[in-house]
Amino acid sequence: MVGAAPDRTPAQTELKHDAIGFLDALVIGLNSTSPAYSLAAAIGPIVALAGVHAPGVMLASFVPMLLIATAFYYLNRVDQDCGTTFSWVTRAMGPWAGWLGGWAIFMTGVLVIGSLADVAVRFGLLTVGLDSWANSEAVRQTLTVLLILVMTAVCVLGTEMSAHVQNVLIIAQVLSLLLFAGVAIQRVYAGTSTLGGTEPELSWLNPFGAGGAALTGGLLLGVFIYWGWESAVNLTEEVRDSASAPGKAGLWSTVILLVTYLSVGIAVVGYAGTQFLADNADEEEAVFAVLAHEVMGGWDWVVLLAVSTSALASTQTTIIPASRTALSMGRRHAFPEGLAHIHPRFRTPDVSTWLVAGIAIAWYLVVNWISENALFDSITALSLLIAFYYALTGVACAIYYRRHLTESLHNFLFIGLGPLVGAGLLAWLLAESVVDMSDPANSYSGVSWFGLGPPLVIGIGIALTGVAVMVVRRLRHGLFWRERRGVADPALVHGGAGRPAGPDSGEA
Length: 508
What we know:
By secondary structure, the chain is mainly alpha-helical. The protein contains 19 helices and no strands.
């Protein structure tokens, strides 16, 4: 039937059902954000912008993430497809918009996997005292490539194995962060901070205390530190109670991240003070290594291990949304059909997983060959792609459920208005990012590419490449573009669960 998603009844086209549970999905969603690494990379720049109100900016950054997480929850209720945004936007807004949403998710994985693995290797070497290896580009890049290959193999060997690895890594990461935060706060109140600490105040949670410009810049960084929780939803076809558990895991991931970020953020600002963090904002994750030594002394390896395990876990979990999206797109003929291949034994998307790893390795090596700053610039370009597909998902939720939004106040607020507000905030941040990145002085490298900042050029290049690939695919294989939009089944809106309503159930 024209417009219907391909029949996935045959076993050889299905991922392994009921492979993991809610808690496993929650852990994978948390690890995908790489909380320790995200804090290490963002705390200095956020404090440089907002001063003591940095925790408040982290709190404000949570709002659009929570609103978009509700969109993921309700869209997953009606369509349990591992392609998430790709599938949902296609059903709500048509194949052209859906394809671009899928391309954005696929490319975020390609851009960031190499950087995450590099951080995992660097901090792992520092943890065991191999500083000279960490400073050697040849050694670090070789180990980074090997790490990506190992993490990819774990993903292919099975979702259960991936979940077991993630459970171990999240325990090591969270315990390390909580220990660090607890020691820092204790030393602040004991007056033994080595960096002139300040006792925390409730006013620090006011995001408007530092002014509008600081809030805008902080929210842009917030898109990065919260990004990744939706990996739990990409596993929807492999999670027990697939209609509700993955969406709940995504929602709870954002809440747990908020608590973690506020706790560590308050501890860091209280211990180090704003001047030290602002002066070292350009050092990225290195400032966390300095803080670890200042706070923990000879136990600084605990925090270094937290950052390493954080990046290691995220290296693996970031492969998940990119590979599952490629699988979903291949299954519906939006990408080459070979990407829909499922490993006959492990029931995982082996071809798409190895493809993501291969492109990520190539990107990492080529961009590093240009310069390390170019690698950082490519990571900065992530915010453009993230804001785009998150906003697209929020709009798709309201459109998909449009016939049911006036049935109750709950539907209007949580399925319609909330996701639209979240999408609007992210669209505004996307526009602000474009303006900010257009100035070469705001990039890591500080050089001009075609009169613009390198991150913006990279973002535009990825977008144009996507459009070109999409047009070629449309001309050569038009089946996907004959899919029609649909609306949600009322039974699913009012608490039902199951397969999505077919696109023939209504017209947009």
